[in-house]
Amino acid sequence: MTFPKQVDFSGWVCPKCKGDLKIEDGGSSCEPCGKRFNNVLGFPDFRLRYEDSKNQMVLARTFRENWDKLTYEDMVRLRFSGLRQRALARGKSPADFKMWDIDEQAHLATYKTRGGRHLSVLKSRLQQQDSSVDIGHLVDVGCGWGRDLLHLACLAKEAIGLDVSVFSLLITKKLLEEQGIVNATLVLAEAESLPLRPGCIDGINCSGAIEHMRIPGDFLRECSRCLGESAWVFLFYPNRFSVLPESHTGIWGLGYFSTARQKKIVLNRLGSEWETFLFSRRGFLRLLKSTCKYKKVSITGIPPGVEDFLSTSKFSLMFPHMYSVAKHILPAFRLAPGLERLVSFFCPVHFVLISR
Ligand SMILES: [Zn+2]
After folding, report:
1. How far apart are the first and last CA of the chain?
2. How many angstroms separate the alpha carbon of residue 40 from the centre of ligand 1?
3. Contact between 355 and 133 (Cβ < 8 Å)
4. Axis-axis angle for helices 216-226, 281-291 (nearest 10)
5. Ligand 1 centre from 34 Cα, in Å?
6. Is residue 286 assigned to a domain?
7. Residue 77 lies in a domain
8. What pLDDT does residue 1 have?
9. 29 CA to middle of ligand 1, Å?
10. Is residue 104 domain-resident?
């Protein structure tokens, strides 16, 4: 079994007390508070609260034991087939997991290109805001299955992929390996407690993850602690007031209801808990202002390059005509700030660039 060693990075600290770490056999421990951090299936584990479920660990071990036999696409298919099997065992019918079929299909069709489209949007935003495109250390928080990290790694000397889930990091590792990316390190950690030294990071990316965080404000606080001079955070979240169905559940207009009502609707329709927080532009700005200091922030639903980015989303599979129309009319809306703001109000996602 081959399992390449991770790139070294000297910026790790204890996620709990931010003290220095002592490297030990099979992990590390914090000198001031004494907390021990073990490695899990080859990844340093800096998580304080999150634990993988039993099913997730079974999947992760399957990946690890069959590392040389499985491809990235095999791993993605195994994840979705596991989800379907468990749903069937719980008495759900295949119609109930139509969204997973669309997710899987869209993911397999676009995983090599989507990160590149994301990178184009990021670069155009950075240039507009006079922020640095060429950086030393970049972190992808909530890197998931690695499709953004794959392309983000070319912006930085060293890239760090961070996620709470072991099986997801294994999928990411496979993708980076298949595509020949060697300047990325992967660690298990929580966005609200980053195991990173103050000021050691030049850029943080967070794609569609902040809406799943337990305390998103803590993540924003952690970002400003870890970022150095003239560094930035780039993130996107699904817009609460999107005209399209809510992206996780496929329910139209979900964000137009109160948070309590959203929980009831999702429970009734899908039989599952709803822990996702849907931000609006105003809601996000309010949170940002109350949690950290920044020099500049811009939020838009239609940055240059978004047409190509959206063509890799699952919605372009569901509504192909809508996307071919959007491709032609979006550039016109960018010409006037008032129009841009109006259209952004209804866009499926909001892109945020925060500069220090
Ligand atoms: Zn500590």
Report:
1. 44
2. 19
3. no
4. 50
5. 6
6. yes
7. no
8. 39
9. 8
10. no
The single residue listed with the structure tokens 């805001």 is 129
Count of structural domains within the chain: 1
> Which candidate, 5, 52, 93, 80, places its Cα nearest to that of 271?
93
- Say if CB 202 and CB 138 are below 8 A apart: yes
Domain that holds residue 319: 111-355
Q: Would you call 165 helix, strand, or coil by DSSP?
A: coil
Q: Residue 159 sits in a domain of what CATH number?
A: 3.40.50.150
Instruction: List the chain residues with pLDDT less than 70.
Output: 1-8
Strand 135-141 and strand 156-163: the pairing is: parallel
- Kindly state the tokens that stand for 133: 């495109």
Q: From ligand 1's centre to the CA of 77, what distance in Å?
A: 39
**Ligand 1: distance of its center to the CA of 355 in Å?**
29
Going by C-alpha positions, the residue among 128, 60, 116 that lies closest to residue 302 is: 128
**In the prediction, which pLDDT does 3 show?**
46
For residue 6, the model assigns a pLDDT of: 57
Instruction: Give the 3-state secondary structure percentages of the chain, helix then strand then coil, rounded to 5.
Output: 45, 20, 35
Structure tokens at 207: 């794609």
pLDDT of residue 327: 82
CA of 60 to the centre of ligand 1 (A): 28
Residue 37 CA, ligand 1 centroid: distance in Å:
10
In this predicted structure, what is the pLDDT of residue 230?
Answer: 87
Which two three-digit tokens encode residue 220?
């924003």
Report yes or no on 228 lying in a domain: yes
